[in-house]
Amino acid sequence: MKNYIKNMSKKDLVLLNIRKMYDSYGYKKISLPSFEEYDLYNENKDFIDRNVLTVMSPNGKLLALRPDITLSVAKKVSKDQSLKYSKIYYQENTYNLTKYVGYEEDEQLGIELIGKESTFLDFEIINLAVKSLDIINKKSMIVLSHARFISSIFQNFDLEYEIKEQILDCINRKNSHDIQKILKRNEHISENVKKLIYKIPELSGNLENIEKELLKYKINGNTKKILSELKQLNSLLMKFYKKSKIVFDFSVVKNLNYYNGIILQGYIEDFPNVILTGGRYDKLFEKFGVDTGAVGFAILTDGLKGYYKDTDKKDFEVLIAYDNSDFEKLVEIVNDFQKKGLRVRTENIENLGESDFEIFNFDEKYIFQNGELKKEE
Predict the structure, then answer these.
(1) Which residues are annotated as a binding site?
(2) pLDDT of 246-269, one tens digit each?
């Protein structure tokens, strides 16, 4: 087992350690079907932003290759609400059709914590997100936002859906200038609230400083309540982590039709994109008729493929190029090497040219000819 772990790629070893950490917190690994009935995605179009690959089953049902894992988790939990599914993790692939690449398959490692919103459940999921990133790279950071914080600011305004979506998109892109253009002629929103909305893209950093900025504006009761809840959560987080490890950024906005609480994104040093993403999505369970909620995240593990350099890793320790003289003795030789904990690759010498050996990274090369084994220096 030790040799097996030693010979793993850096990426696989990191993911193994993350899974072990989830196990240590009592999370249960589940497997999910690669195919779901197409209706699952058709009825939740506004939750996924991917094109779905479909296939007709032999019995005439339209199936889809899974473009999203959260929907499959929600479906599974809604059908079996036993306690064993309250804390789960998975390592699964998603499938997608893209305009330029075509068929695309991406791996994710993620966890879901099933339960109604509370400070401690949100803390647990953020805590596990931080620990997951630390296993990947100690120089990492979690960015937090809150779906209801954003929606509470818009709660009393009769904005057209398209206008609201445009504003949310501008907030996500930190584009205050275009928000001002959109709201300039809107007479239903006070100047105080307009200025607050213009300010949202800049509300990032530690929560204490963000609160000071917010107090310059007249904010409604719901926004104050959410801010108070976030302060309680942040107070608990700061007992275990430095301010630089966890920051808030209220320009991070997700689908408000589903997400209703904490939103999180994770970053690691020397990686330009988001590596971890998640949040609380109680509204999705409401659609499945289940009186519960859930919060979770996924690590986009395909992004780690080129992140670690495994140049010092051997493909195997021993290469044996053999002829057809004595297969029984060859098997015995291979077994002897393997008993010593060495990995052995055998190749028929007739099928390999001298240059073919250069594609392998190994320690020792042997030639097995006429029933004899000879080490090449």
Answers:
(1) 68-70, 108, 112, 258-259
(2) 999 999 988 877 789 999 999 999
